[in-house]
Amino acid sequence: MKPIIKVDGLGKRYRIGQGKTYGSLRESMVDRLTALFRLQNRKSAKTDCWALRDVGFEVQQGEILGLIGTNGAGKSTLLKILSRITRPTTGRVELHGRVGSLLEVGTGFHPELTGRDNIFLSGVILGMRRAEIVSKFDEIVDFAGVEKFIDTPVKRYSSGMYVRLAFAVAAHLQPEIMLIDEVLAVGDAEFQKKCLGKIRNVARSGRTVVFISHNMAAIETLCDRCLLLKGGTMVANGPTHQVIADYIASMAQWQTGTVSLLHHPGRTGSSDHSMTSVTLAADGVDPASVMQMGGTLEVKVTFKRVRPVLPVIGVVIKDSHGIAILGVNNKFIASNQFERTAMGTISCSLSDLPLLPGNYSLDLYFGDGTQDIDVVCDAISVEVLPADVFGAGQQPPSGTGIIYWPASFALTDGSSQECKLTDVSARAVA
Amino acid sequence: MVVIEGSGWRGQELRELWAHRDLFYFLAWRDVKVRYQQTVLGAAWAILQPLISMVVFTILFGRLARVPSDGQPYAIFSYAGLLAWNFFSTAVTNGSNSLIGSTNLITKVYFPRVIVPAAAVGASLVDIAIASLMLFAIMPFYGVGFHASLIMLIPLVALTTLAAGAFGIWTSALNVKYRDIRYALPFAIQIMMFLTPVIYPVNMLPERWRWVLRLNPLSGIIEGFRDAIFGRAFHWTGLGASAAVTLLLLVASVSIFRRMEQEFADVI
């Protein structure tokens, strides 16, 4: 069968300082200094960086293809090329059908306009014809569940309503090829389920979906086939469960208990390279990549910068679906304010962590108290091992939530309860 | 079938523009609606702006400086000029800021980019429509009758729209790459107003310098506005020159835009 998407030798080069690129510490220092003299900055920006290199694959009609990889692996760049937002530096793409892209929820929404107006505006921006929107209008409103507020400006919507309406418009696009970037990270669980169902229906009706997500559970239930990108190149292309296994294995190199952050793929675009390394220690073992349930985790972040700042460190712990479970930050603890310094190691101790067994990933934030200077997502991970935390001779069941919690139960025997009830009724009569 | 290659995606632009005609309409409609919703006086601004300028200019230039006005009431003379000029300058300014104001669209969804500045220019048509009604309302007070030539205002406004489109499309693309445009443009427009016969008549200039004004497409257009309003014979050579320069500028501006739009999403 002829593929509906055919990608050949695709590459995208960015100039440093233009997009998501990774420079060395020296480069960012030079950039910082020359930022004062913009002309010189432009001269020094000659270094190239390939966000995508030599990627080739085919997608058949009706397939749901998953794209996975760490931040900066090139997933979004690939989707942007497929949706024609940016053009490739090398290579070629053939698309046999109308393309609809959903790279963000609420593209084209204007806060001052009503829900009704925004359905039309966002609809035509996403590529629908006016007549098409008119015919699907009721369906869209119904899917979003915002009938009562359809003539209210969307700036007065709750964030949940806003997201539902925005997704509802996008979900009623009917292109032959649908490109979706991590839109399921929004909305409540029930709405996410509804969205997943909608995507599945889209594919069942013969259309093709390319889907980026960090949510491995969603990828696993939706996609037949997956591509794994790493550093801009395609490292795996095959059945979903196999590629996900590869992905997790490739993440294992970040599981040694200590990680250099200098060239970390999880560093976000505008960050500088203040954080140089992170080390985990658990229950006295240092470094450690595993810990016991209920144990104490120590996160030690080393930083080094040119100019001193009032250092602030934030740590966010996420589960294997990328959902944040907790976040801590010394900025909000009065007794944990530090002196202005250019280098050092801040250690953050988290005692009695109520995490269930499983793999957890840590995002690190470094800032000066007013803004984030350096952010590294999925900087390091830790495996939590089951333990008999309540001394019951067995471990608490997992799958009953995202954390466990000490609780105390009390039983009042039946007769005394009846007695109380009579007391109440007696008082009521009195 | 769509083919995406390094050199861009050529050959189907006209068909794509046509396919996105609804987008043009809705973007223009959004601009108008949001503008009038957010301002207290709403559409009144379209009337107040030229009206107040007219009063100020009539006192300053008509009465005090005694600038000639082709023997017509200076108030109508200057309002006619301001009608065209205010529309042109608003449309160019809105057009030039339109792309950088649509960053969230440019980086998230594909459509022919030229629709964004074109819609911003188109949305300004509402202003000139309202301001024209005001003109018709004040004409009788100055003893200016209604002539059949008023119908020429329609093609003249169309020509002004194309001229504004040429400048708006060109500066919107430049604005993406060089944010200096944002600061330079209002200044340039101000200077350009004095190089255009908005508050003075063309014949104030010595004969041998008038060709300089012909290079400015707005000169012929504004003269045309006055001819239409006062029922005079049209200067067809002047209008022809304006139309020719406008079309040339438009072709140049669209081709510059097409070359620059390839990297909008990367640099915006």
Describe the structure.
The complex is a heterodimer of chains A (430) and B (268). By secondary structure, chain A is an alpha/beta fold. In chain A, 27% of the residues lie in helices and 31% in strands. In chain A, the strands form four sheets. Chain A has a six-stranded mixed sheet with strand order 5-6-7-3-8-9, sandwiched between helices. Chain A has a five-stranded mixed sheet with strand order 12-18-17-14-15, with no helix packed on it. In chain A, strands 10-11-13-16 form a four-stranded antiparallel sheet, with no helix packed on it. In chain A, strand 6 (177-181), helix 7 (189-204) and strand 7 form a beta-alpha-beta unit. The longest helix of chain B is centred in the first third of the chain and has 25 residues, at 74-98. The radius of gyration of chain B is 20 Å and the shape is globular. The mean pLDDT of chain B is 89. The interface between A and B is medium-sized, with 38 and 32 residues. Strand 4 (90-95) of chain A pairs antiparallel with strand 1 (2-5) of chain B, so a sheet runs across the interface.
